[in-house]
Known about the structure:
Layout: H1 2-18, E1 22-27, E2 30-36, E3 42-46, H2 47-50, E4 56-59, E5 65-74, E6 79-84, E7 106-111, E8 119-133, E9 139-146, E10 158-160, E11 166-173, E12 181-185, H3 186-199, E13 204-206, E14 209-215, H4 218-224, E15 228-235, H5 240-244, E16 251-255, E17 258-259, H6 263-272, E18 277-284, E19 287-294, E20 296-298
Amino acid sequence: MKFLQQFSDELESLVAKAMPAVVAVQHARGHGTGLFLTPDGYVLTNRHVVRSQGRLTLELHDGSEVRAELVGADAPTDLAVVRAEDGAKFPTLPLADPHDVRVGQVVMAIGNPFRLEQSVSMGVVSAINRTLPLPDGVILEGLLQTDAAINPGNSGGPLLNMHGQVVGLNTLVLPYAQGIGFAVSATTAAWVASLLIQRGKVERRFLGIAATAITLSARSAQEAGQLRAVRVMKVGQGTPAADAGLEADDLLLGINEWPITNVDDVQRLLALATGPEVRLEVLRKGQRRTLRARTTPREYSKAA
């Protein structure tokens, strides 16, 4: 019983510390949730929460309201940043290190499901690196799966670990299932939010591949010098990837000397590239190769 009481007390403390940084996001056509990323009022939420035109209002933990404006949104990750017009100093929530997110980890979702403000649910990280196609053709990649209760209105709210760090941004549930919810990982949220705050958009560069993240065999891991990589499934004809000599079944290890372990890394490094040419580190049939691709800018893309 002592253990249960201690666990309960720690959960209460965690909620009390996290709740002030969570806001309700309201507009003419609906509502959702968001969280303060910076003390000067930048709020991270889902794109589908704020994509309708019109006034945005943030309802704070104490019940007060402030107006907000859209800073930028990114369809391929369903993320958006808005900024509170009030110049007050706001409480924030830290993002978790990706290496600290593991299957089986206890997590907590905070949000406003069905306008039930400041609701809390608990579960575990059920899986990582899930890929989910949406009805509009967008493919969300690198998602966390959780059995913490997520309902309409939870979208944009934090999925927290027991250290009070955001491991993901609650995004959607499968309507025909129970206990299967998904969150955009904090890793994705960090780089997308940074670009939205700096530039107002994420300008992606088109490479022209279909790919999937894999865990390497012991032999391949020794040859690659890393445990995970991205396997190229298909190379589009006439694309920058084809022109560079990339082939199906190549293992993509790095871009511009930065290692790659999942498809989100590919999207991130292409978006952050400062010039059109990128350097690709590839493992092909046990041999390392360096290829150079001249990528083309594409503001919206459903593939790498």
